[in-house]
Amino acid sequence: MKQKPGAECRCVCTCLRRAARAVTQFYDEAFRPSGYRATQVSILAALAATGPVTLSGLAEETVTDRTTLTRNLHLLEKKGLVCLECGKDRRERRVCLTPQGGRVLEKTHSAWLSAQEKVIKKIGKKKLERLMADLSDVVDCCK
Question: N or C end of the chain: which has fewer CB within 10 A?
Fold first, then answer.
């Protein structure tokens, strides 16, 4: 059966994933000259905001499953942008932003700001503020 154009966005999950992929691709393009991806920069930014945090805490903060987060953290660790260390308990792993990771955030800040401004200009500040609040509500209701 043939679907009408736009019918794929009747499913909340499909529509939100589609929007998330489009936004990620947009920011990836903005970060391309730096050699980093939006997923990497967002993890570094989360660590800058939280400070040293357990792997579970970072997974909760970024709403990322631990397997995916661990895989991404190992790549960032190889580049010297984060460090993973044992916590108070041998089972606990803590993640820290390194000084080099902080420099990457500084290096990518202007690209992030430019991308932000383009999105705000295209969508409109008030509409985007409502969207961001609505998306926060979606995250909260699905936890």
Answer: N
